[in-house]
Design brief:
Blueprint: E1 27-32, E2 37-42, E3 54-59, E4 61-63, E5 67-71, E6 77-85, E7 90-96, E8 106-108, E9 114-120, E10 127-132, H1 137-144, H2 160-169, E11 177-180, H3 192-200, E12 204-210, E13 233-237, H4 239-250, E14 254-258, H5 260-273, E15 279-283, E16 298-302, H6 309-318, H7 320-332, E17 343-346
Parallel strand pairs: 1-17, 3-12, 3-14, 4-11, 14-16
Antiparallel strand pairs: 1-2, 5-6, 6-7, 7-10, 8-9, 9-10, 12-13, 13-15, 16-17
Helix pairs in contact: 6-7
């Protein structure tokens, strides 16, 4: 299967640069797979589509201020993008421009934080650095770091108002466990009020944690999708959530996943254990047509980039033909695309 089969043209003006004024006001396209129908709604209408026969599973990961700007002693500006915390204050990172650093280079980010370059890693331009600081690294990051927005969202660093907006809105309202470099964007549309309305209808809600990695920004670059390798992303499923899902499946309820990260968490766990069980593990699962879903029945998801693993995943769930029909209709109806954009509900 060729990745070129999953390409489409998107007018640049449909790439959402800011969130909607209110989370729940986003447009929501509803795809009925059984009837092959498309409806146009707003996200607050989600309470009309999910009932007591469904269990809602969300990813409660929290985005960390992973983008850091610092200077070498020569005055050269260096960007460090934190990817994954290792042991002994070491981090796996991306560096730009990487040609300006070498082993032993020290980048000063603030009076509280510096980074010593240790060595390049074999994996796709990544580096190992030692963060030099005193106290709690995450408290410091919240002072000096920046939310790592995707590259298609353009920002001026001096705009403090928009920076404050991103800190608030590029997180879900239920974000809990810090460790992601990107938001699980399907969850950005939820409010506490909508979650409560669903619970009032008898919908049970559970949470998993998958820390979203840099791979979410990376397109599939090989012609044959079978040659693509997913980045590893750590995840955790609690005993409570495992029991909730297994009980729901036994009782014939539908599992509604919020976001592709939730899908990959649940499907990976089933693949690894033959069931959903409490665990801490990692996912490298690449879902593409004609994947057979073992756990997830329905999906809330945003509109994804061309030639992306996320577009392949939703095509596996709803069929490539139906997804591309829906995307064409979304473009005609001026839906907003990507991280801060609108969403669809596939059932």
């Amino acid at each position: 299967m060729l990745i070129s089969e999953f390409d489409y043209e998107l007018p640049e003006e449909l790439i959402a640069q800011k969130p909607t004024e209110k989370r729940e006001q986003s447009k929501m396209m509803v795809l009925n797979r059984a009837n092959h129908t498309i409806e146009h709604k707003n996200f607050f209408n989600i309470v009309d589509y999910i009932d007591e026969n469904c269990v809602l599973i969300l990813n409660n990961t929290k985005v960390m201020p992973a983008r850091l700007y610092g200077y070498k002693d020569t005055g050269a500006k260096i960007e460090i993008f934190l990817l994954k915390e290792k042991e002994n204050s070491n981090w796996e990172v991306l560096i730009r421009p990487s040609k300006r650093v070498k082993t032993g280079t020290v980048v000063k980010i603030s009076d509280e934080l510096s980074a010593e370059i240790l060595e390049p890693l074999e994996d796709a331009g990544k580096w190992l650095v030692k963060m030099i600081y005193e106290g709690d690294i995450f408290e410091i990051l919240h002072k000096v770091g920046n939310i790592p927005l995707p590259p298609y969202i353009e920002r001026k660093m001096a705009d403090d108002e928009i920076k404050k907006l991103d800190f608030e809105r590029y997180q879900t309202v239920y974000a809990k466990d810090e460790g992601s470099v990107a938001a699980p964007t399907a969850g950005l549309h939820f409010t506490q009020d909508i979650l409560q309305k669903l619970k009032n209808k008898g919908v049970e809600v559970g949470y998993v944690t998958l820390n979203v990695g840099i791979g979410t920004f990376r397109p599939v670059k090989c012609d044959n999708i079978l040659d693509h390798k997913m980045d590893s992303e750590s995840f955790e499923i609690s005993e409570e959530t495992a029991e909730l899902i297994n009980r729901a499946k036994a009782n014939g309820k539908k599992i509604v996943a919020v976001g592709t990260t939730t899908v990959r968490t649940l499907e990976t766990a089933y693949k690894q254990f033959g069931e959903i069980k409490a665990c801490k593990s990692a996912s490298e699962l690449f879902i593409y047509p004609p994947y057979e879903f073992k756990v997830v029945d329905n999906l809330i998801t945003n509109f994804h980039l061309p030639k992306s693993t996320l577009l392949l995943l939703v095509s596996a769930l709803a069929s490539k033909e139906f997804i591309f029909e829906a995307y064409a209709e979304a473009i005609n109806n001026k839906y907003r695309f990507y991280s801060y954009g609108d969403c669809m509900y596939i059932f």
